[in-house]
Amino acid sequence: VSDQAPLVILGTGLAGYNLLKALRAAHYNGPIVMITADDGSAYSKPQLSTGFAKQKTAAELVQHSAEQMARDYQADIRIFTQVQALDPKRKVLQLSSGASLQYDKLVLATGAAPIRLKLEGDGVHSLHAINDLLDYARFRTQASQKKRILVLGAGLIGSEYANDLCQAGFQVELVDTLQGPLRSLLPAAASQCLGNAMQQAGIRCHFNTSVTAIEQTANGLRAQLVSGDSLSVDLVLSAIGVRPNIALAKAAGLSTEQGIVVDRYLQSSAADIYAIGDCAEVAGLVRVYVQPLLAQVKALASTLTGTPCPVSYGVMPVAVKTTLHPVVVNPPPANAAGDWHIEQDQADGVRALFKTADGQLLGYALTGNQTALANSFNSQCPALLP
Ligand code: FAD
């Protein structure tokens, strides 16, 4: 590899672009090439699930165009370009344009993709997912003349979209296999409180069930539930979770598990290849949120500018943007020994604390008016990755 080979960042999401900014802020002067399959617009992905109520078009969510980012941060940004293969030995990327690109160092910031549901019926082609600005533009266009929307999945993203579409005046049907919204993150009382607020706002909730088929009808779509019931809707939005984009890394022989396996320095199993953001599995943790990726960016920018720095995570609660009834949750570590204690359970808010037998606070779930207490509990919880 010649001295001229660039640092290549694959992906222009929050991980990729924040790394670009951090490197230039740290006076990294070498050439940087960025590659993205989409149009390279800089935007804040969390705003996708509050955009309908705020009446924001996709264009209005763009903070900077790829052209502006290229100019402001001296980067060669290749848009609508797919990386099809990676050769870690020769340090070469194969691009969809037919060209190949040599790198000095490579940062994979390939994000995560929506999990696709396998359903029966002649209406399945009308299943939408919104995971980037282009999806958002497409969905807004489809929804412009429509009224009834089925949201599949009441996890974090599905609950936010249901909340947003309801606030924007759509008739929302919300379906989840679990007993209530956010049930994999929240104890029953907190989930129920959110569910009640959703129903009071007019969201029709269908829990403990799932959709088996989507059929086309004369005036829209019919979703068949396992219970035998069916729902008449105009559009279906699937939000049943995301999975890290690891295919490229895996095909190149890099170590992958749920995500691309990296150490605390964000270094993958291959020399000079790093991974950050939703695609990375750091010390066994995949965290598809903004705070962890910002911690990774800070550490990696330091490492790449000559001061090796391991990433660490403090307490990182998740704020769920269900404005009908907001939620802040700091889930306890997986398989932690302890129990949820419901300290307050009222219609305007639930306060639940997850404690060990000897009273140590490991996590919390706050809803409604109790969310204001989050800061006071953060200082008592253990760091996610000390
Ligand atoms: P992405 O933004 O997905 O970027 C991936 C990039 O990789 C894209 O540019 C893509 O084109 C490119 N790419 C991938 N593969 C290839 C390839 N082979 N060739 C070329 N390009 C490729 N987190 C929070 O902390 N708080 C929130 O409130 C919150 N709300 C959210 C709401 C919604 C609706 C969603 C979907 C997510 C939300 N998140 C939230 C999660 C947060 O947005 C993500 O963790 C974050 O945006 C991930 O950024 P990323 O850069 O890792 O990935």
Notes on the structure:
This protein has 386 residues and is an alpha/beta fold. It folds into three domains: 7-113 and 243-304, FAD/NAD(P)-binding domain; 116-238, FAD/NAD(P)-binding domain, CATH 3.50.50; 326-378, Enolase-like, domain 1. The protein is 22% helix and 28% strand. The protein is built from nine helices and 25 strands. The protein has a five-stranded parallel sheet with strand order 3-2-1-7-19, covered by helices on one side. Strand 10, helix 5 (156-167) and strand 11 (171-175) form a beta-alpha-beta unit. Helix 1 (14-25) runs parallel beside helix 8. The model has no long low-confidence stretch (mean pLDDT 97).
Q: In order across it, which strands form the biggest sheet?
A: 3-2-1-7-19
Q: For this structure, what is the CATH homologous superfamily of the largest domain?
A: FAD/NAD(P)-binding domain
Q: What global shape is seen?
A: globular
Our Rg estimate from Cα atoms comes to 22 Å
Please give the CATH class of the largest domain.
Answer: Alpha Beta
Mean pLDDT reading? 97
Total count of strands: 25
CATH fold group of the largest domain = FAD/NAD(P)-binding domain
Bound molecules: flavin-adenine dinucleotide
Into which percentage range does the β-strand content fall? 25-35%
Low-confidence stretches: none
Write the layout of secondary structure elements.
Blueprint: E1 7-10, H1 14-25, E2 32-35, H2 58-61, H3 66-72, E3 76-78, E4 83-87, E5 92-95, E6 100-102, E7 105-108, E8 112-114, E9 127-128, H4 133-143, E10 148-152, H5 156-167, E11 171-175, H6 188-200, E12 204-206, E13 211-217, E14 220-225, E15 230-233, E16 235-238, E17 242-244, H7 247-251, E18 260-262, E19 273-275, E20 280-282, H8 290-304, E21 318-320, E22 327-330, E23 339-346, E24 349-355, E25 361-367, H9 374-378
Parallel strand pairs: 1-2, 1-7, 2-3, 7-19, 9-16, 10-11, 10-16, 11-12, 18-20
Antiparallel strand pairs: 4-5, 5-6, 8-17, 13-14, 14-15, 21-22, 22-25, 23-24, 24-25
Helix pairs in contact: 1-8
The structure holds flavin-adenine dinucleotide (FAD).
The site of flavin-adenine dinucleotide has 33 residues, from helix 1, helix 5 and helix 8.
